[in-house]
From TrEMBL:
Its EC number is 1.13.12.19, 1.14.20.7. Belongs to the iron/ascorbate-dependent oxidoreductase family. This is 2-oxoglutarate-dependent ethylene/succinate-forming enzyme. Residues 175-275 form the Fe2OG dioxygenase domain. PANTHER family: 2-OXOGLUTARATE (2OG) AND FE(II)-DEPENDENT OXYGENASE SUPERFAMILY PROTEIN-RELATED. Keywords: Ethylene biosynthesis, Iron, Metal-binding, Oxidoreductase. InterPro entries: DIOX_N, IPNS-like_FE2OG_OXY, IPNS-like_sf, Iron_ascorbate_oxido_reductase, Oxoglu/Fe-dep_dioxygenase_dom. SUPFAM superfamilies: Clavaminate synthase-like (SSF51197). It comes from the Bacteria. It is an enzyme of class 1 (oxidoreductase).
Amino acid sequence: MAHDALPVIDIAPLRDPGDGEGRRRVAERIGEACRGHGFFYIAGHGIDPALQAALRDASRTFFAQPDEAKMRIAMSRGGRAWRGYFPVGAELTSGRPDLKEGLYLGTELPPDDPRVRAGWPLHGANLWPEHPAGLRRTVLDYMTAACAAAQAVLEGIALSLGLEADWFRRHYTADPTVLFRIFRYPPQPGGEDGWGVGEHTDYGLLTLLLQDDVPGLQVRTQGGWIEAPPLPDTLVCNLGDMLDRLTGGQYRSTPHRVRNAGGRERFSFPLFFDPDFTARVTPLPQHARIDPARVAADRADRWDGSSVLAPFDGSYGDYLLGKVGKVFPQLLGQVL
Ligand SMILES: O=C(O)CCC(=O)C(=O)O
Ligand SMILES: [Fe+2]
């Protein structure tokens, strides 16, 4: 499998408002990558390496505990906030149980937050483990740093579309929906079928993925599946369905999957940076007219048989809950 096809883009200029020329250059490369595979690596993202290392260490410590300790913060205790631990086999992507365990996290909201009081699904407090106690601070700091990097990438994407740099912040991410996950993939014996994560696309705007040093992520391209192995000092950035919809399919939310054939456990840390829960994501004016035949072709090609280009009347929150229902059928009754 090829593994050199995804570009590495240094986004440091996007974090420097004074560097107009550098920002234009980076935006151009981002635009190319978005029209290509919809997957690229970002360097120069500004997330402290010590913070990344602390996140990896604390995660290893948490997952190394016996099941009973982890199940003390099981997702079934997270209620409508949809947070907590789930064991191997509990999540179904593409209709089959994934070979991974994980911790579901997100923006930390106190019980008196108006959205929590109003009973909004997927909003609320995280479930933190007793051990290691430091996981809480580390995760919260990592989410803050990764969200800043995501806003910077979105500035590049806006510029690449001929929009003002702060266009996304003004229209869709003033109060972004942020979900963060820590996954542990046990090693899969060679030849066994089944996936760490089955084929899927991500739902929102951007995913920023930190990996440890074990490969496993695969990306579906026109020329077949390629690998997206860990590269030092980078994160993988990929586009979600909302960017695909906004651009009439010009910027791709590309299917991907995971198989951990590396013979060692694999950890990954995806942060999903998505539109405001109440936002209605509609195509940009220049992409508003879509040929129904394209929608049909997109539907036929998609992991769950639904096209991201089809007209959709609801909010981003409605879209997200529809997807959640498919991968966590047993939790849906609780979340909705
Ligand atoms: O673990 C990975 O490398 C990717 C996970 C993923 O694609 C997802 O959670 O959406
Ligand atoms: Fe994904």
